[in-house]
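Reviewers asked in the last cycle whether our approach scales beyond single polypeptides. To address this, we selected a multi-component target totalling 848 residues and predicted its structure end to end. The input consisted of the following lines:
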Amino acid sequence: MKPYQGYSQQQLQERKNQLLSQYESYKSQGLKLDMSRGKPCTEQLELSHGLFEDMHDFISIDGTDVRNYGALDGIKEAKAYFAEIFNLSPEEIFIGGNSSLNLMYDLVAKAFIHGLNGFEKPWGKLEKVKFLCPCPGYDRHFAITELFGVEMIVIPMDENGPDMDKVEALVAEDDAIKGMWCVPKYSNPSGITYSDSVVRRLAAMKTKAPDFTIIWDNAYAIHHLYETPDTLLDMLEECRKAGNPNRVYMFSSTSKVTFPGAGISFMATSKENMAHIKKQITIQTIGFDKINMLQHVRFLKDAAHTEEHMKKHADIIRPKFEAVDEILSKNLGGKDIAAWNKPNGGYFISLDVLEGCAKRSVTLAKEAGVTLTSAGATYPYGKDPNDSNIRIAPTYPPVEELRKAIEILSICVEIAALEKILAA
Amino acid sequence: MKPYQGYSQQQLQERKNQLLSQYESYKSQGLKLDMSRGKPCTEQLELSHGLFEDMHDFISIDGTDVRNYGALDGIKEAKAYFAEIFNLSPEEIFIGGNSSLNLMYDLVAKAFIHGLNGFEKPWGKLEKVKFLCPCPGYDRHFAITELFGVEMIVIPMDENGPDMDKVEALVAEDDAIKGMWCVPKYSNPSGITYSDSVVRRLAAMKTKAPDFTIIWDNAYAIHHLYETPDTLLDMLEECRKAGNPNRVYMFSSTSKVTFPGAGISFMATSKENMAHIKKQITIQTIGFDKINMLQHVRFLKDAAHTEEHMKKHADIIRPKFEAVDEILSKNLGGKDIAAWNKPNGGYFISLDVLEGCAKRSVTLAKEAGVTLTSAGATYPYGKDPNDSNIRIAPTYPPVEELRKAIEILSICVEIAALEKILAA
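The resulting structure, written as structure tokens, was:
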């Protein structure tokens, strides 16, 4: 498809002038609109104030006083809570603090310094460690592996997840490929959920590296926008079935269920992996905040109650996702200069603009007061090889601000496209 | 001094038989008394329930919504709070989660993987890393350096702190000596506070390793038992004065101010060190629980208010420390088979028994239902070269249980001593 099919040079120039005039008019308003991070809005935060209602009884179901030391891997009811939602056994779960990212960082750090279960040697003792990075992906994942000097290999994504032909070919051949980042459900930012076939192939594929490790960041497992949510196969179960029970470490948290700054998180993996890593964690820490764990379980109760709670979140943010789609369709539809997804859940919309136009679009938006995630951030080292992906995080701004920001963004995307086309 | 001066062999045997009969009588009671860890008791935990009284306003002094993402290094008022108590500037402070131990582990891990400010290379790239370990010391410190393969060198302690002649001689000569663990105030377990001269010498001494790093675990800074507390020089200030501003990282927490499982912690170091390490932390985590930070500062308010709060803790635990001293004096005094300290603060009493008798005493106590910290735990690798140090943690048990446990412990210490003397 050719952009602006049927337009003459003059028409394109006129369109550009018209957009520039709209752009200048927005710019003169001195706006400050932030869509850079996947942050819940204030209305969402207020859904969880019930968390603080019962702060009188601090004894866990097994008699542990949650105020005091003890229970390294978390309180019994917190493990039972996540076990129900994620189909796990309590022995597979370690409850963390307010940051599942920190648990992932710690996993990578432990893999490098001391090695995980089944490692011949720690990754830090190897000449070269490579990771597969489905893209567009999560910038904070890539920042961790970059910090550890990992060579990151971009894996393209389609509507079923990562390109599995490519993944299988790479891991079969290269034993320096030690791991892979995955956001398997409502992926950050493309919103896709890995198909059953992709999950099974990831679980079963032959890897040259015996210590190949998948970091399964199931951050948006229950973050649906609609009544008919995506479904994701149980990766721990699939790995067990495929005879690779120790391949995967799963992570999730309540950051976007209760509070982004003050939720609880967990790591889940095979019992064997868990027993091994707990020996390291017991030296690292006294364990995480058990008062917060108890508050969370008392408030969220169980899977069914949590599902109801998540519907309240969806009711607040669904109109925002729909506003983005509506405005992008109105402004950019039919011109073949942009494509974007309409996710069933998660926190992002992934916008692909003309090759070479993402950075320019984001810069134009920034200058008009609209802050987006840096162009390139969804790729390792911050370098999008096509310079075409832009991550939109629609949840935080009030809907009227969001509408304005997306109006401006679409103008910027179109100006950048026209600049490119007219210069060609 | 000779133990049991003036006793005949027969008298010693009779004494032993008498003690064994008391011991068997206690043993038959099937007791379960735990003095293994420095845990606050339930009455102490209840002092901090005011923390939960105001859970309605979540906006920090600078407008940050503490429920949401942001403020990697902690909220402004938490930094101001610790800055006042510890004579720091806010730029020198990073606020952590519920475990200062975890912050210390992270510091060591970062030193090994990526290096800290001013390091020529990460310690993980070196053939050999050694740490100085003043002993008796904190078992969890030693466990961290053991995990990282550090060679730990025992430094004897006297009433002024570590033996500085030995410390200075070692660090001047050996550039593999990269660090030192210190609990400078109401030391765990000996209760001593480093003298001004010791602090100044630690700050000023010439070290062959340019990246020599002191981990200053100021855990008990405000944990006084009496009205005339020990005083400790400001180590960051002394390091600055001595021209070694980047030598020290200080840690503390509210674990024994509010809740051991759910307090807040901090790390403090020079602005230059802090700027360097924050670049790594920003990749590791989204930051720590800011709701808990805000609750803490609203409850503890400031230095003066916290001092009053700490007096309430002291009123609860002082009688326990005094009961230990009273019973040990009554049972073991004048026999020259044991020595112990009477600390002005902190959480421990350090009991030295006859050489070769600590393990036996702890085993005897265990068999009679009294759990103590393992003998040897106060030394690197769990090996007390003299097998003579026992750590007593008197705060957790109710005073009547504690009295019984110390009665039993003194019987065990005396039996072990008599076994040794009679076998000689």
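Chain B has two domains: 9-44+307-423, 60-301. We regard this as preliminary and will revisit it once experimental data from Aim 1 are available.
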